[in-house]
Structures are given as C-alpha cells and as structure tokens.
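Retry 2 of 3 after timeout on previous attempt. Resubmitting structure tokens to design endpoint.
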C-alpha cells in the first residue's frame, strides 16, 4: 500500500481499532472509547499499528496511539506554555527573538495521545491555524531579528508537496533567514511518506542547496526505530538534511533508564542526534496519564546519561514553560532541583539559574518562578 492509500486507510473509529487489535470491548467501553475519539480524534497508520505487540497489555506503542479512559481526566490546561500569548498573527507565534513558529496545519498522520496541542490537532475547528500565508511571510520579512522559522502544526509534512515548496520558496528568499526547521513525526509514524515520495525529496534537496533545512522529529521509544523509519531518516540524510530528535519523557512508555538509553543510543546509531528530552506538559487528558514527577524524572535522566556516550547524551532535559525553555539540570539535595533558562521569553531571565524546592509528586513549575 503506498503512503497516500495507507493514510486514507488509517484506523479512525472505535470499531476499527476493536477489530484490528482483536479486542472484545463491552458495549459500555466501546461507547466510552467513541466519546473520547469524538473529542480527541484517533488516526493510526496501518504501519504504526503493526508495531504494537498484541500480547503485551502494557505495550508502549499502543499507549502512544490508542486512547485511554485517562484522557477524560480534565485536570491541567490546554495551553501550558502560553501559546495564545505568543501568537502575533493568526497561526504565527513569536516567543523567542530569533525564531518564528508557523502553525501550518492541524492535521497529523497519527494523533499521539500525549500531544501537547491536543486542543487543536485533528479537530474541526482550525481557528489557530494560519489561513493567510502572505501575512506570515510579511511578518517574518519585517522582523529582521528572526533568523529561522520552525514550520509546525500538526505535522508539517502533512502539507502537500506544493505547499512545502511554497513555504521553502518564500522563507528562503528572506535574507535574514538562515535556516528552516520542519517539526514532524512522519519519519516515525508514516515513514513511507518520505522514502517513497521522490517529489518531496527533490523539493527538499533543491532548497537545502540554498539554505540548511533541519528536520526535528519525535521518536519516543526504541520500538519505533525500524527498518522503515531508518529508511526515512536515511533518505533525508542522503540529501543533506540534518535530522534531530525530541523525545517526551512519558510514564509507562520510556520512564526507565534502560529504555531511554536504548532510544538515545539507537537514534545516534541511525544518524539522528538527540536534541531534547522534554518534561511532559500538564495538558488536560495527558497530565495524569503520562507525566513523571521531577524527582523521579531527574533520577531517570541521570542514570540514562550514565549509560551514554557524549553524542548520545547531547540532548538537554528541559521543559517548555510560559516564561521560556528551562533546562532541568539536576538535584542539589533530596528536595531541591536546579533549573536554568535555556531560552527565555524575557531577556532578564536569560541564563538565570534557579534552585527550587519541589514536592514528591510535583511535575511542573508554577507560572510565577
Ligand atoms: S504528530 Fe506532533 S502535533 Fe501531531 S499529534 Fe503527534 S505530537 Fe501532536
């Protein structure tokens, strides 16, 4: 099945997932699942579904793509890092001086259950997505402090090839733009979209000859590194694209040092440099399902690092707070953790180090720090 046909045949309904995984859900459970899917869409490529180990009730791949009843837990919020307040025009965020982030689509090849943009991915209301690309280009053009654009969404590689070409063409014409980043989980969930699509690869290669393109992808578990995902990465690397990875630390998925070290080592082996490990945000429907408390998380990251070479541990363990990207440096004492601004929204915070006392179950920092 080619990637377009595969996408059309994604698993999207409770009945389909029930059948595909040989579940015998009770009518009551089936209704609950349908209600969750109505609110937070499900869409699973057949390829990704094939990675599920059906004999393992705790299979991490299943948890990443199939809804759980825990998604009905509404504690937390839908905008945990102040995206609304950083929106300068519809679908364009400008939080850090050098970087503009363009919300190009609200569609993804798969709707990850831990997504921090749960409020907008796959839903009918796409108000937050840019509808007038010229406005975005004009904003970037007149803001000479912007050196790079992150094309985000949704999944930026869900845009048509024509739109991707247009995005690259317009941004690369701007003198003060040095490089473009695409945020995409497609190499992980639908790698065929990359290695089967020569037209996409040609477009990327042509523009990469003008200015550097980075693909920032999102592997969360070693089981996602397969022959197919490796082929997608290789296809990108062969045309000179730099591929880096962001992982989210997720309870029940990768919250142990052996799994996390295996993931970081395996990524390095296929030429994907680990970039960030993110603290999971307190998003409604995600928080109580996936967040790992700081104290436990710091122990996991420290032990993970003890198993890694320099390149494999070249990531920062960080959180995307309303006030900036904050590195979680490590424990100072049993109850105190050292944090440091890696990127600050306000100049006064740049590089600031904070020693903060945390509770045993605390997994996020308050708004005011
Ligand atoms: S691909 Fe990215 S934006 Fe889309 S659901 Fe997954 S994490 Fe969210």
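Retry 2 succeeded. Sequence:
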């Amino acid at each position: 099945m080619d990637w377009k046909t595969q996408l059309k045949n994604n698993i999207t309904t409770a009945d389909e997932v029930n059948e595909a995984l040989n579940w015998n859900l009770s009518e009551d459970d089936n209704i609950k699942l349908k209600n969750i899917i109505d609110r937070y869409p499900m869409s699973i490529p057949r390829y990704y579904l094939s990675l599920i180990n059906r004999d393992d009730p705790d299979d991490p791949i299943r948890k990443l793509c199939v809804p759980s009843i825990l998604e009905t837990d509404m504690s937390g919020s839908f905008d945990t890092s102040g995206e609304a307040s950083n929106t300068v025009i519809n679908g364009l965020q400008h939080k850090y001086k050098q970087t503009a982030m363009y919300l190009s689509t609200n569609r993804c090849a798969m709707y990850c259950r831990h997504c921090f943009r749960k409020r907008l991915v796959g839903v009918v209301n796409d108000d937050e997505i840019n509808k007038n690309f010229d406005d975005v280009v004009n904003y970037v053009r007149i803001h000479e402090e912007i050196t790079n654009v992150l094309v985000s969404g949704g999944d930026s590689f869900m845009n048509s090839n024509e739109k991707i070409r247009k995005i690259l063409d317009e941004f690369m014409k701007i003198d003060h733009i040095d490089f473009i980043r695409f945020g995409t989980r497609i190499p992980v969930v639908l790698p065929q979209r990359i290695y089967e699509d020569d037209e996409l690869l040609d477009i990327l290669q042509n523009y990469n000859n003008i200015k550097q393109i980075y693909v920032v992808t999102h592997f969360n578990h070693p089981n996602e590194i397969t022959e197919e995902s490796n082929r997608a990465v290789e296809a990108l690397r062969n045309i000179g694209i730099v591929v880096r990875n962001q992982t989210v630390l997720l309870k029940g998925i990768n919250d142990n040092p052996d799994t996390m070290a295996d993931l970081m080592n395996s990524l390095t082996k296929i030429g994907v440099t680990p970039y960030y490990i993110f603290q999971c945000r307190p998003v409604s429907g995600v928080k109580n399902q996936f967040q790992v408390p700081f104290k436990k998380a710091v122990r996991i990251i420290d032990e993970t690092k003890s198993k890694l070479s320099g390149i494999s541990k070249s990531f920062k363990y960080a959180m995307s707070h309303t006030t900036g990207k904050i590195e979680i440096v490590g424990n100072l004492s049993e109850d105190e953790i050292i944090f440091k601004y890696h990127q600050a929204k306000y100049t006064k915070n740049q590089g600031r180090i904070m020693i903060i006392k945390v509770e045993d179950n605390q997994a996020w920092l308050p708004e005011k720090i």
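Attempt log closed. Residues 84-357 form a domain with the TIM Barrel fold (CATH 3.20.20.70).
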